[in-house]
Amino acid sequence: MFEPFTLKDIAKALGLSTSTVSRALRDTHEISAETKKIVLEYAQKINYKPNPNALSLKERRSKSIGVIVSEVANHYFSQAINGIESIAYDKGYHVIITQTHESYEREKINIQHLASRSVDGLLVSLSAETSDTSHLQSLHKRGLQMVFFDRVAEDIETHKITANNEKGAFEATEYLIRQGYKKIAHLTSSDHLSISIERLNGYKKALEQHGLPFNPHYLKYCPHGGMFYDEVENAVKELMNLSDRPDAVFVAGDRLSVGCLVVFKNLNIQVPKDMAITGFSNSDVLDLMHPPLTAVRQPAFEMGQIATDMLIRLIESRYPVYEFEKKVLDTSLLIR
């Protein structure tokens, strides 16, 4: 029976250690150019072929990437996942998708499960409940590569990619102001999420630039991003019951935008006759609504592609990476 040559055979023939031969064949920076040349020439001479199973175990590569999102049914995330898969599969990586349903506990369980399956890296968009990222920090310190997209963790040093949330929120709020509305409310997700903070800043800047006061009573948080109808309904009812009721609302989320329209319909509040609304949404369903909703659109597919490319470069880097990039992509206001 034919027995293929092994690393040990090469090491014995050249008087080197097995680890030195392994590193030379993988072209790592610790081995001198001269040693690499000797090892590679000998490997070619004996027609050495690495065992793919042994190589996978040695390098601890699973050629799989874990993805953590709040909900696949969310139009933004489904488009981002399409972008992730388009790059990952092209580069030979499998994609394992998990949903947190905006739960911190579910996020922790999903991440531990992915880590136990030895994924090579994680693409993470934090849940609405997540303010403590220690579960991610501990894995990152142990060498698990990760890239954040959309909802990012400021306290973990790695690549991050977001949309220009502040600019998008500014434009959506300004659009309402230019339509003549002066009492504009803001409906958003949990207060600690990066996207909530950035969109609130954009909303406030638009008010300030047009000489309108910020009214704290007009700001309503939905801790689960509108995943539960009750929290959207309660927030909208609180706004509608104010003595100085708003005449418009800027909604800072995909699911929140649709949820808000449903609540208005159930309360017999006509849009835009009784209440104007702009939102953040990547849903094409908004075109079918009457009247259609003007909304900020994020380049979700492109964000997924860039995040995946960043992660694979981290995974495949031969050297430790110490410089990280925060990439911000432009949004567009679709006036319907």
UniProtKB/TrEMBL annotation:
InterPro entries: HTH_CRP, HTH_LacI, LacI/GalR-like_sensor, Lambda_DNA-bd_dom_sf, Peripla_BP_I. It comes from Pedobacter nutrimenti. Residues 5-59 form the HTH lacI-type domain. Pfam families: LacI, Peripla_BP_3. Residues 1-44 form the HTH crp-type domain. Keywords: DNA-binding, Transcription, Transcription regulation. This is LacI family transcriptional regulator. SMART domains: HTH_LACI. GO terms for molecular function: DNA-binding transcription factor activity; transcription cis-regulatory region binding. The lineage of its organism: Bacteria, Pseudomonadati, Bacteroidota, Sphingobacteriia, Sphingobacteriales.
